[in-house]
Amino acid sequence: MAPLSHILVSGLSLLATATAAVVDLDPKNFDNIVLKSDKPALVEFFAPWCGHCKNLAPVYEELGQAFAHAEDKVTVAKVDADEHRSLGKRFGVQGFPTLKWFDGKSDKPEEYNSGRDLESLSAWITEKTGVKAKVPKKEPSKVEMLTEDSFKKVVGGEKDVLVAFTAPWCG
């Protein structure tokens, strides 16, 4: 009988594989998955230390999940271009994160320069492929975004309130 730790590790590996909808690329698999598959692909060139990349990561993972139903029609992929600098150099990556669209017919990608939110990224892929994203409905947030006016009403009340002060440019 296998030790419990082996079973647990195997189960977690299987779970991670089942939920990873974004394809990890490296120099060994890039050409086959992106350039020779006759399938369009959106590729994120990222660096693990990059704050903007870390902010994009959960959105990009959601994007992969949203198009997982159409993996035969479009690929959502990423490459650690800090580790695999040859790929970043090959495709003219100047900063992180860089998103490039490969149409499945050419090795000349198109730069993606629009919004970094799920809606914008999904719309881009849909516009290019005709494939629609399948995004699960989310519960409404229990976090309330405060304004100058609502701050006084919410914080000045009877119940305890936890407030996080953030800045959108702080990565």
TrEMBL record:
Pfam families: Thioredoxin (PF00085)
The entry's keywords: Disulfide bond, Isomerase, Redox-active center, Repeat, Signal
Limits of the Thioredoxin domain: 10-130
E.C. designation(s): 5.3.4.1
Gene3D superfamilies per record: Glutaredoxin (3.40.30.10)
CDD domains from the UniProt entry: PDI_a_ERp38
Catalytic activity: Catalyzes the rearrangement of -S-S- bonds in proteins
GO biological process terms on file: protein folding
Any one GO molecular-function label of the UniProt entry: protein disulfide isomerase activity
Secretion signal span: 1-20
InterPro entries tied to this protein: PDI, PDI_thioredoxin-like_dom, Thioredoxin-like_sf, Thioredoxin_CS, Thioredoxin_domain
Family: Belongs to the protein disulfide isomerase family.
Name this polypeptide is given: protein disulfide-isomerase
